[in-house]
Every structure is written in structure tokens, then in C-alpha cells.
Amino acid sequence: MADRGNRGNRGGDRGRGGDRGRGGDRGRGGDRGRGGDRGRGGGDRGGGRGRGGFDRGDYGGGRGRGGYDRGDYGGGRGRGGYDRGGGDRGGYRGSFSGFRGDGPRGGGRGRGGRRDASPGISRAFGYGDATPSPNAEVAQLETKIVSRQSASLASITSQMGGMSVKGKKRGGGNVGGKPPPPMNDRLPARPAFGSQGRPVVLWANYFKVNVTRDTFFKYTIEVKKKMTKSAAPKKASKRGGKASSRPAPGTEGPQEAEQVKEVRGRELFLVIKATLAKLLEQDKSFVAASEFKSQIITLKKINLPENPIIIQTPKDEGDDEVLDTYNVHFHGPSEIDVGSMKKYLMSSADEPVANADVAFPRFPEAIDALNTILGHGPRSDFDKIGTIGSHRFFPFGDDKVIEKLTHNWHALSAARGYFQSTRLGTGRILLNVNVTHGVFRLSGSLTDLFDNLGLRAAPKTDFQAMKKLRAFGKFLPKARAWRTMILATGKTIRRSKTINGLATAGDVRKGRRVANPPKFDRDWEFAGPKNVQFWQETDGGGGRYISVFDYFKQSFGITLKDYPLIDMGSVQNPFTYIPAEMVEIQPGQAIKATLTMEETTAMLEFACRSPYSNALSISAASRQALNLDDNALDKFGLSVDKRLLTVQGRILNAPMVSYIANGKKVDVAPSKGQWNMRSVKIVKPGKRIERWTWVNLMAEHQRRRAVDKSVVVSYGEWLVSMGIAINKTPMDPFREVADPSNLENVFDWLKKNDVQLLVIILPEKDSTGLYSRIKTLGDCTYGIHTSCVVAAQFAKAAPAYFANVGLKINLKAGGTNHRLREEFGILSDGKAMIVGYDVTHPTNMSQKKGSEAPSLAGFVSSIDRDLAQWPAIAWEQPSRQEMLSDKLLEAFMIRLDTWNKHNGGKYPENIVIYRDGVSESQFSQVLDNELPIIREACRKKYPATQPQPKLTILVAVKRHQTRFYPTSADDMSKSGNTINGTVVDRGVTQARYWDFFMTAHEALQGTARPAHYTILLDEIFRARFGDKATDELERLTHELCYLFGRATKAVSICPPAYYADIVCERARQHRPEHYGAGDDTESMSTVSGAGVGTAGRQVHVNLRDSMYYI
User: Fold this and answer.
1) Where is the composition biased (Basic and acidic residues) (predicted)?
2) CATH topology of domain 685-812
């Protein structure tokens, strides 16, 4: 998509005001995921990657956009997730800036934006008094731990070749193929805390958790429902009132009484809640917490005179006479040792602590128990708190904050809530709390929903109404709703039921055959109560057809309106059509939905909030929503501090970047993470593009938007002026304007005429399906580079837009756009290869077993010392497979040979790998499963005369919940965020491990999300730089963020990881049958295997060693 410019500040939740901002691009990318909650007991886990999620921490964050032909059409990290907390719109898609005036202008016009209730753009968060210094005792303990490790583990890197973090022992992790070392071998010890950069104190979105208890007990529970005669429902209305003489299914006889039904959702919640109440009744000192699914945490062992416990709950709200019966089986208990965890956190000693080395992350059972206790309060209020996953809570009571997403008659809403997760810090237990956003079904009376959207029952001849009703009905299936029922006695009850959708004539045509099925009036599809008749039995054994309207009028004196009827049938009673007046959708129902462009934009605007606003919400509103001040926590010996933590950070200096001017090297100094190319040219052109052409790809009704040839000629001249090796005059095209249906004919002509590059002018930015066809034909079928532009922007012939797309063309051709002025560290000798790989998974897609969409792996590696060219490989593996398969072996060997070819016949001495998006619980899998494959690839390729390479592996994660906020306006960016270059490696980390948070980019709007890097293996930096290893690795990572080739700004995550993500996105475009336009994906650091009919869809041999994806 084309650049949009800054959106300006927000102001009230609903208002659209805000500056429309001209400069900068909107950077929609940001990371996608929905992942977040995947690891055990941790918020900052990486989790699955997911495309959905709008609560993004960084709203497009820092990923330079670079024009319409983004390589990933919709963004390396998707169009914006809404489930990861707040969002900055800074340039993750970094757009070209400059060529105009003195400042970076880049980008088209912003859209304005929904105003935030408390913008606070120019305010630093605080509590009204002096900002406290970071905890001195914690800082001393951190320093003591690192100093002790540095003294005792100076040679640790020599042992890291094949270590295992978990019990799974595949072997082969080390060079000699020996079994993995014992469990107490750990991740690389932190060599030192970083020392470079200007010190700064920051707020972090963490509260300290105080735990006085040393032991808890955990029971797992299993709930089974029994269908008994006593639970048989009374005679009730079939359509809100009609009496039924048949016994309920499953209650016909003794044999049926023992049948078991799966219990879940609200029903399971009510059973567990009743179970806890019964146990409290038996023992007034009983204290327990539950996640209301499968476990209970207690302070002491439960006295169970009977197991299972028999629980009875009312079948219907408002009717206690009819009960359902359940058996609740208790298993356990297991003892949760919290005391050892507290001892471990407070100790600086290096000796093993009980249960500390069982798994990584440490003490998962204790962390899960604390999460269950802290989550019990908000989960207890089922009707007022919606939940997504294990850690995200959304108020739906009086304090709800929602935004309707009804742009296309979809019954959806965006909701604001809070994420919480217990984390381990040095010397303390922490609670990570963040603002989060999710997509939910609209709740409330269906009649209100229909009225608000202007919907009524409609005949087939009303095409517009039919279209709207289909759209509305798309998200109704599986919705929980209250169905009002009128008993024969006249008593009204409510029953929780599931909606199948709107009632349609097609239900009868396609449904199973029953005696006397409903009748729909002719030419009515989404029918109302007057247009549908059902069979009403009479006392004499006969019956008659009566309309739903007449039945309610005659039986209950209710006059129904012409709303569509609702299908709430079951397998036993398939045609149960209920009037809208009798149905109310329950609140808090999250839904996996593929949003339209308009809905996505509205969602992102809703989620994009200033750092001040988010910090304010976390410090105040979240405490009420999450029950953090609830007296129930006291009973468990838990309390949560009232104030956010402060931590020590540092602001690293930005590197100088180099271009060419008048044939000489020219250095450019970035300002606020970005720079312009005024009066300079690219560093090195790629292979000369002699034969190139263009086409306006537009349908007949769009051809008024066609761009004239003169604009294309000007574009060619501009590319030459940038220093790109291209014929300034394009070839005459096959046709200046071609219909999309003739796309294959266009490519056939290109192939016959040896065309190297096709510029495709599209009528609008959202031609996603067409874009997939173009990229599949160009990348896979014909092997011809393609560059897509938007007619409206391209026709303006704006230098910024021309140059923006030109940067990508030079990269596709193998060129270098800019480089770092200073080579340093492992880059100085030109013997290091940098690698990035990633995996994207299908999510939010209806898939039949055996025909699931494959997961897709993307792999990139550097081949030159300028770190400008990153050729890619993509492949499939089984759907949702987490770890990379053996195809990694082939990919790694291919890229080793590519590096060898470009570097004088030598293989690299050092290989630094940025593994994108792995959760903490998967660290061991990287080391146990993937590291041996990488070792094997090196063994196969390196000759006996050259030593095996030294490896360093980092996991790069953007999908986490940690945020930092300025404590002073002096250390704040224009958008209210931390200043670009901010790094944090203490305060909310564990000193024993080597990790750091880095905000390399300038967040233009919203709340900046730092990237989190964790070192899993280090054979390079500590051995070479000693206690300066931390500074060297942080500098490398930071300055790499200034080398994203299609941008003139720093990006928010290291380019190897970012490029790999874009490769995955392009691979999705190559498989539209699996990943249609707008499908949501979960992107992870994993790999794929088997797609149906697409495994052979590989990039054409002509493009395999190029950056075709950019």
C-alpha cells in the first residue's frame, strides 16, 4: 500500500478529529500476531505470531513502509494486530524520505484519527510527585549476580555448542554429535550489563508482586454431565412458547441417564463456581482460585469425603425447579513450591536451587499457580469480563470501552481490556500489565442490533438487503445468546443457547428430512415471522401450519415485527426458529474474524493510544478491571504494589549512514531515527536493467485512472538520477492498459521479449487478490521482477514516491542503497554472515482436517560486507508445525554456498542468527532441534582446511507485552515515547540470562513497542570481546536496524528477522488458495511442510538468488 502520512493525535474515543498530518508514513505493518499467550505463565514470550491482533504496542511500529510494492503487500508483519497492547505507528515499514526541502516528508496524507480520551502526547507519565529511582537493592543484586557469573563462567561459551535447556535430548547439538549436557547447563550467562549510551530512567509496565506463602496445592478437575430423569425440562415453548409433549433427548430411560455430555464455556464456569461454593460451605476456611477450566489452586489440601463431587445447577435462569447434574472429579493434589522460587530470585549464588533447572522458563508450575490466583478475580465475573486466552481480560460492564465495527453490516465490536502475566525478575516477582484490544461480537438485544443497522427480513428480489443480511449473518454462528422462553404456565425463563445463524429457506432445502418441516413463503430467503409457518400439533393428534407471527399473537398476545428469524436449532430439533425479540446476544464473546479494510482501519485507530494514556490506564483502570486490590488476594498471601516500576535504560547513539555524491562517499547523520537522500545517490547499482516496461492493469470501468506514458518516462529518468543502473527509456508495452483477465498474456509477451522488469500500475491500493496473481506469475511462473504502484500516487510523479519504489528496484537488481559509515566488531573483517528465519502459520481460517493450509518458512542471509543483499528461500511444512524441519539443512547449505561465491571462495568464520518470534517455552526446541541441523549443514560444506564457524543465536521477539514510558519530557520523543535507540537490559530482566529490550525506531504515533532479544547460544561475542560482549552485540543489533534497504529510517526489529517475515508474507501471496485476501495468520519462528498442491510452487530459478520479495 502507498504511504499514508502521520495520522495526527487522537482526542476522544469516538471523535475522528486529530491532525491530518502530511509527513511520514503510517507504517501499518507492526507485528501481527495473536500469539502472545502461548508460553507458560509469561507475557513476554513471543508466543505465536499471528496476523490478527490489533493491540499492537507498535501500530505499524517502526517498520518502514516503502511504497506500494512492499514485497509483502499488506506488510511484513500484517496489517496490524490488535491483541498486543497499544500501538505505535512509527516507521516499521520505513518509507523513503527526502528530495524535498530540508526535512523528511515522505508519504501521502494521513487520515486523521479517532481521538484518544487522554492524548497526553506532550506529557510524561507520573504520580504527581518525584519519580522514584530504580530499586537500589535490585540493582545491587543484579550487579552481584553478573559479577559472580563473569568470574566463574569465563569459558562458558566453549560449552554451549549443543546444550539442552529441557529434558528432551535429541543429541547432535554439539559438533561431535554427543548427547546434550545435563539440565543444569544453562543459556549463556550475561557477560555484563551494557554500558554504552546516555543513561535514562523509564517507567515499565510492571508491578511488583509480594508473596508471603511458600506452598500452594494444585488440583486438576474433570467435569462430566449426567442426563437424568430429574433434569428433564418442563413443557416449554418451542418458539418461545409452544408446548412440547416429547421428553427431552437423553431422558427416555435408565440407559440414557448415564450418558455424558462435554461441558465447556459458560456451563463449565457455572459448575466450577458451584463446586467452589460447595467446598466453602463444607469448610469456612477454604480458600481457592481457578481458571474455570481444569484446575484449582488451594492453600491446603482439600478434605474430599466423596470424589467425584455431585453438583447440581439450574438448567435455566429464573427456574430453579429443573436441575442439571454433574460429576466433578478431583485429581491430585500436586504441591507447588513457591519458596524455592523466591529463594532463587533473591540469591546471587550459583549453586543449583531445587526445581530451578527443570525447564525454561524457570518454575513454570509456580508461575502458572500465581497466574491462576491473580486471574481468578476477573474470571469470576463471567457476564461482565470477556477473556481471550489465558492472560487477556476485557470489561463489559459499566466500565467497558468499545468501538462498533459495523462498517459492512458485521455485528462486531472492538473492545479495550488488559493483559496480565506473572514474570520473574531479579530479586522480585513481577506482574506485567498492558492495555490490549480484541474483536468481539456485538452484544445485546438482536432487535436493537437490527434497528441500529437498518435491517429487516427481505425477499430474494431485494438484492441490497440480501447482501446486508448475508454480511450480518456471517458472524452469528456459534454465538452464545439468551433465549427467552415462555412456559405453558406463563412463566418466563432465559436459557443460554447457541445461534446457528439467520433462518433461511436453504436450511429446509439442505437440512435433514423431518416430518412436517417449516414452510417459507415463496421468494423469501431471510424470512420474518409472517413469512415462515411451522407445524403445530393439536390435542386430537392432528395439526396445522401456522405462521410464527400468528402463533405469538394468538398464544401470548405478542405482536412481532418483521425482523429476520434466528436459527437456534439442534441436531435433535434442527428447525427451531426464534423471533429476534426473544434473543439477546451475551457480552464478552471474542471472535476470530477476518476484518475488512475499513474495519481494520477503525480497529487500529481505536487501539492506537499515546504512551501517557496507556500508562494512565494501566496504573489506575486496570487495577479495578483485574481486581488487583481485591481482598481475596490477601487470603493467598499476595499483594500487588500500587505503582509501576522504574528501570534504568540507555539511549544509544545513531550510526552515520553513507551514500554517494559526485562520485565520492558522503556521510549522512540520521535525526530522530530517520534521514533523507537529498543530493545523494545510492551506494552501488545492481545488475543493469536494460529491458523494462509497464502496464496499467485495470478493468474497463477503472481505465479513467490509467497513467500516461509521459509519467513512466519521467519515472525512468528519476531512477537513473538516483544512480540505479536502468535504461531511462522503457520499452513500449504489450498494451498500455490491459484487463486483469489478460495478465497471463502480458507475461507471455514479457517472456518472449526478454523483459527484466515490469512496472504494474494498479487502480487502487487494496487490489490484494490481483496482487497475489501478479506476484505468483512474476516470482514463480515466469521469473520476472515486478513492481506494483498505485495509479493515483504514481501519476503525481512525486520525487519521494518515485524514489521510494526505486530503492526496492535497486535491491531486486542486486544493488546496495546505503551502508554504515563505520565497520566495527565482527563486521570489520568481512568474515561474518548474518541469518534470519521465520515461520508464518494459518489462523482464523476454516479448514477441514487433512486439507489445512501449510505453515510457511522464510529464510534470508547476508552475502556481502555491506549487509545490503539478503537473498531468500521459502518452503512449506505441515500446518502449524513449530520447529523447522530438515529443509533447513538444504536452505542453510545453499546460502553457505552463496556466501562462498561472493566472498572469494571462503565460508564465513562467524554466523549470527536472528531467530524470529520463538516463545520462551520453545527455546529448548531451537537448541535441540534446529541447532543440530545448522551444525550439520556447516559440517557438510566446510572443507577440512577451514575450521567450523562460531555461532551466535538470538531470538528476536516483537510480540510481547513489555512497554517503557518516559519519566521526563526531556527524555521523550515528539509522540510522547522513549527516544529511538533506547535499550533496557536490567530491572525487568533476569540477570542470570542474557537478553535486552531495544527501541531502535522513532514511533510516530501510539505507544512504541521495543524488540526483545534473548541470546540462546554465543560462541562469538564473549570469546572475542570479553566483558564488552554485551555492548558489541547491542551495537550490532541497533545499527543493523539502520540497514533496512528500502527505508531511510531505522526499523523496530533487526532486518534479518524482518526480511524473513516479508519472505513468509510473499510465500502467502504465492498461495492464494490457502491464504486468501485478508486472511489472518499467526507468524512464528517455525517451519512448514505440506501444503495441498502448493508445495511445488517455488520461486523461479531466475530470481532465487535475489531479493525478489522486497
Assistant:
1) 1-58, 80-91
2) Rossmann fold (3.40.50)
